[in-house]
Amino acid sequence: MLAVDRLAPETRQGSPLEPLTRDGLVFGCDYNPEQWDRAVWDEDMRLMRQAGVSLVAVNIFGWSWINPAPGVWSFDELDEVMDLAHAHGIRVNLGTATASPAPWVTTRHPEILPVAEDGTRRFPGGRQAYCPSSPVFRAYAAEVSRRVVERYADHPALAMWHVSNELGCHNSLCYCDASAAAFRGWLEARYGSIAALNTAWGTSFWSQRYGAWDEILPPMTALSLRNPAQLLDFQRFSSDQQLELYRAEAEAIRRHSTAPVTTNFMVTAHIRTLDYWSWAGEMDVIANDHYLDRRLADPTAELSFAADLTRGLAGGTPWLLMETSTGAVNWQPHNLAKGEGELLRNVVSHVARGADGICFFQWRASAQGAEKFHSALLPHAGTDTAQWRTVLEVGETLRRLQPVAGSQVHSDAALLFDWESWWSLENEGRPSEDVRYLDQVHAAHAALTGSGVSVDVVSAHDELTGYRLVVVPALHLVRDEDAARIARFVEDGGTAVITFASGIVDEDDRVRLGGYPGAFRDLLGIVSEEFAPLGPGQTVTLDDGGTASVWAERLRVTDAEVDARFLDGPAAGLPARTRRAVGEGSAWYLATLPSAADYRALLSRAAQDAGIPTTPVPLGVDVIRRVSADRAFLFVINHTTDTVEIAARGRDAISGEAIAGPVRVAGGAVRIIEEAS
């Protein structure tokens, strides 16, 4: 199968970010002037210009600032901030102020407060203290956003609109009466009849059959395991409710303004409640918030995956990192400072994977409030600090990288990612709690990138034309049409690598009978008769010398080659890895989780099988290329302490130094090479 550029750079339409990248990649921040005395605003603007800040997000949590009491509107201070930004040549990403209601709103209407899974009401005092389905909240939010849009639609500082903030971060799942009513309406629209719902949910189990819509409740905490199909539908419904909030404000904005409209996604390891594939088409700019998660074994690898997934949501076009941190955050058990060079490596990692802008939370570190120990561009200690000097370096780097703007990453390999599979795989009553969806996705992504293979992260519903290799990790929930699309991809000459826990259930969370892996059984030429998950910390050995963990299953081949067998464990002697020739392509199956080194070796084999050149890179070193119609940029990010050499020719994009051979990249450093044509 010939590889083609799915969206050739010279044929793609311009990005809405283009007006902001003419003098450099976007360098931005959240700015909360309402937290500070007016006397510091001028200094803030002066220092922003010194750092190279070109975009500020303002009025994100401004509800009580501009609407402090019922019927009272006060825009004078926001007017001044908008005018100051314009006078200093700084564009504004203007919030609709609806991220959290003012205290007077919940005092007047306590019924809008969200209800948790256990039936207890959550009170104000934090943020997002509202039910996303509440018609009362929606009416107030519509009024606030309308007032903001009408006032500032024509302001010369306006660059884009920022709807709410991190929708669903805290209140994605609400179980109140308003949510219950909305859930019933959503179900009726989805199924049309109670009989169809009973079939989809399998309500003959445990006497759950419903006779009327009003018998249905959200899946609140129960004495036993709950109905998995009901849980799945509630997760779908909840994502849709948050999207409805976004749509309502976006539609109101577009009636008065032509500026781009977006909100900040949370493509990160600890947020799983929103199906962003269904959201992406609603955004004029794809924007993401990402912070290093120190609770993970490899936070840097998770950053790389999140950036690739964000690029996938953007359809391969440039995107905006709306929030990240200069150093420590305030919400993890151990909020660690970034090490020497780590901030620049993080920034360049996002840019390498398609970001045309990097914005930080926030400009000035707060002196009060829940985030007072969250790092910022301007730290508590002021400008005579190493952190401020690093901020200046970041600003200068983004300025010098202006030629990168608009270029894109080209990949011959794709990794399928699906929020519904995440939900379904990790709902209650599963075969092993050690099988966590993101763990499997991250392992596959790390194996690909560690083999020197650039990878796009795409939806399970996407067309796969133009890719040579598709990796399918733990795609638990699979629709018939998606399974058929993957089969056609292989028949047409592609290589697919499908892992355990894939193809097990349909869209109703109903097990596909006849043997696992269900939807992929015929494509792979195998039948798995029984799951045999491994115990905590247990490993098994394969007959090719490899080791594996987490999972095994009792598998037999019907029309496939056995590439490796289990030597020990609960599936000893049975196939652990298979390969089947299909049409012009081939389909692999992994019945266990290989060690990291073995996984890299396997996906390198699969890539070569697919005709993709592999250039293994040292562990801890990222090598990514962005390409435009007339130039290419090679990004080398060295997360190790050792100096590495990478073949390159061209010029250093930061220093202008000519590169005529291998480029040396010191431990902890980054190099960006504009390659010779």
* Mean model confidence by pLDDT: 96
CATH architecture of one domain: 3-Layer(aba) Sandwich
Query: Which class of secondary structure composition applies to the elements?
Result: alpha/beta
State the distance separating the first and last CA atoms.
26 Å
Largest sheet: 9 strands, parallel
Which residues sit in consecutive blocks of at least 5 with pLDDT less than 50? 1-13
The share of residues in helices is: 25-40%
CATH topology of one domain: Rossmann fold
CATH superfamily of one domain: Class I glutamine amidotransferase (GATase) domain
GO molecular function, one term: beta-galactosidase activity
Keywords: Glycosidase, Hydrolase, Metal-binding, Zinc
Protein name: Beta-galactosidase
Catalytic activity: Hydrolysis of terminal non-reducing beta-D-galactose residues in beta-D-galactosides
